Amino acid sequence: MSEFIQQVINGISLGSIYALIALGYTMVYGILRFINFAHSDIFMVGAFVGYYLTPTIVSICGGNLLLAGPIVMVLTMITCSVLGVTIERLAYRPLRSRPTLTVLITAIGVSFFLEYGGQLVFGPDPKPFPELISRVTLIDEGGVVVTSTPLIVVGTAVVLMLLLRWVVQSTKTGTAMRALSFNMQAARLMGINIDRVVAFTFVLGSSLAAAASLLYATVYPSINPLMGVFPGLKAFVAAVLGGIGNLAGAFLGGLIIGLTETFVTGYISSTYRDAIAFGILILILLFRPTGLLGKQETEKV
Amino acid sequence: MLLTPRLIGFLAVVGIALLVARFESQFNAYYFQIIIYIGINIILATSLNLVNGYAGQFSLGHAGFMAVGAYTSAVITSTMHLGSGVLSAVVFPFALAIGGLVAAICGILVGIPTLRLKGDYLAIMTLGFGEIIRVIIQNLGFVGGARGFTGIAKLTNFFWVFATVGLVVFMLSNLVRSTYGKGFLAVRDDEIAAEAMGINTTRYKVIAFVAGAFFAGLAGGLYAHFVTYINPSQFSFVKSIEMVVMVIIGGMGRNVGVIMAAIVLTILPEALRSIAQYRMVIYSLALVIIMIARPQGLFGDGRWGKRLWVAGRRISKRFSAG
Q1: Which ipTM score applies to this complex?
Q2: What is the pLDDT of residue B245?
Q3: Containing domain of residue B190, as a range?
Q4: Residue B299 lies in a domain
Q5: What was the pLDDT predicted at A217?
């Protein structure tokens, strides 16, 4: 029983990280209808930004992690937003009216560019991620150990998701984003500046990925230039599972994937850990391609 | 039987392969290895071109089928303890063919559920299946699991590689000119319109996919019996991406361009060994730039081969008339 509770806690904490990444996939897909493969590598860059910033910021803050943590997070989010918007501007915007396949290949190209560019810039070997969130043991009873880390991870993720929900539902730009995802042409005719709203979408997605990367690196403190690949794929599966384009769905999907993965690793075998997400993806796409919370879309000629 | 230009080309390639194979021992081993890789890459790239280019179904799992072919044929030749005798020359092509067939069966199993999907979803599903195939091989004890499969007989030689290249290119170029080929193009250009015209789109997509998987399996078998040691990580999706890059740079749906790209992209990394760590960076940048600036590929419209042929015929006609 104690192991079960432990697994649930780990699963929810991992799942909320996947959910944060999934939101970036889902927003871009909702508006531009393509999988931003580079999203997982923006996540990776976020971890490296955190790696290089943390020692400096911590020493500026006099070793106060409660103060340094949020500062590092905000700075990382800004850096990743700039990266995300740059990628959109240089690689995706020139292709906006081209076939999906062209954009897809470009996205794969950008993703590989960041991964192998990262290997050149940061070096290919894994690096230990510095302590950014102090680990305090809260409960240690009957084999269940609850540290502060999963609480902070889940807490941060929930706060960011509520913030995102507020932005999308209640601000003017958020309304414009939703308009774009319904019908880009109509939105353009209503006087919405498409380029600006798309750029804003990339800012939101990339900063969530940045936040997720810091949380992920805190839970698994070893970072390398290819670290984004599998979390990215699983987060994408989470987005599809929940219903792509649907924010609540991304959250739900993230939790399901996170829990499934921890349970498979804990109770069956860790060698199948990375194949599980693909298995789930195949099942959803076969039986409910619109995802759990997705809307049925009819194909128009 | 009609002696079409394509059949003549195929026979010529096989003839040349036979001829060159006689002098195989005199080649510089390093150059010879590159030439073999060129042949294998041509098979992989043209077979992927059938799926991605002609049928328009973007697959990212081609390395998975290559792995299936490699492992299957390696298991066959290893259990039969083939040396370099006459027997192996008879059995080897059968082992290759069975490797291809098993890959094709995997292609059917993967293709039927996934090919109902489009674009991005198809890409990520094929990527997923490719990875699943790799994970399964990693967990199979009798082929060495993650440690790899050692001691495969070195049966691949110049003749087998280039005879297969000739055969594959011959079959593919006939296939794309057949009714099936027209079906592939129809599915690629407008699936809904093709469906409305009574084309069973799923069937055509699966056929292209399975044929592609079969040829990738052949290439895998040739590869396994050349390097004599294979392990699952050689067939990760980075390998698939390499093939995709060849198809994109050559121009999707243009076999001549894709063959050129396979040749150039096999030689280039060898020629640029000193900057090897930049290879993938350059590849990925090339993908992005080509997609933005020249999505039809680098090697023209792929018609220049035909133009050369037409011009050659005109000249020969003038000579025979004169």
Answers
A1: 0.83
A2: 85
A3: 5-237
A4: no
A5: 93
User: Is the per-residue pLDDT at B161 higher than 60?
Assistant: yes
What is the predicted pLDDT for the residue at B300? 59
Q: What is the mean pLDDT of residues A256-264?
A: 91
Alpha carbons B175 and A121: distance in angstroms, whole number: 46
Q: Cβ of B117 under 8 Å from any chain A Cβ?
A: yes
Residues of chain B contacting residue A102, judged by C-beta atoms under 8 Å apart: 291, 295
Phi then psi dihedrals of residue A141, to 5 deg: -135, 135
For A93, nearest residue in chain B (alpha carbons): B292
- Rounded to whole angstroms, how far apart are CA atoms A181 and B155? 56
The mean pLDDT of B123-144, rounded to a whole number, is 84
What contacts A297, CB < 8 A, 6 or more positions away? A290
Contacts of A299 in chain B (CB under 8 A): 192
Question: Is there a contact between A274 and B135 if contact means CB atoms under 8 Å apart?
Answer: yes
For residue B10, tell me if it sits in a domain: yes
> What residues in A contact B136, CB-CB < 8 Å?
275
Residue B69 lies in a domain: yes
Q: Residue type for B209, please?
A: F
Structural domain tally of chain B?
1
Assess if residue B302 is contained within a domain.
no
Residue in B with minimal Cα distance to A116:
B281
The reply to whether residue B244 touches residue A286, judged by beta carbons under 8 angstroms, is no
- Cα angle vertex A294, ends A87, A182, to 5°? 60
Distance from C-alpha of A191 to C-alpha of A176, rounded to nearest angstrom: 10
Rounded to an integer, what distance in angstroms lies between the CA atom of residue A247 and that of residue A26? 7
pLDDT at site A255: 93
Under the banding of pLDDT at 50, 70 and 90, the label for residue A224 is: very high
Residue range A279-297, pLDDT digits in tens? 888 888 778 777 787 766 5
Nearest-CA distance B136 → chain A (Å): 9
Fill in the DSSP letter of residue A292: S
Range of A145-154, B292-301, B312-321 with top mean pLDDT: A145-154
The DSSP code for A294 is: P
Residue B113 touches partner A, C-beta closer than 8 Å:
yes
CB-based contact B124 A109, cutoff 8 Å: no
Confidence class for position B164, pLDDT limits 50, 70, 90: very high
Interface check B276 vs A, CB under 8 A:
no
Indicate if the pLDDT at residue A54 is higher than 80: yes
Residue B159: the pLDDT is 87
> Does the distance separating the beta carbons of B283 and A102 come in below 8 Å?
no
Alpha-carbon span B138 to B303, nearest angstrom: 43
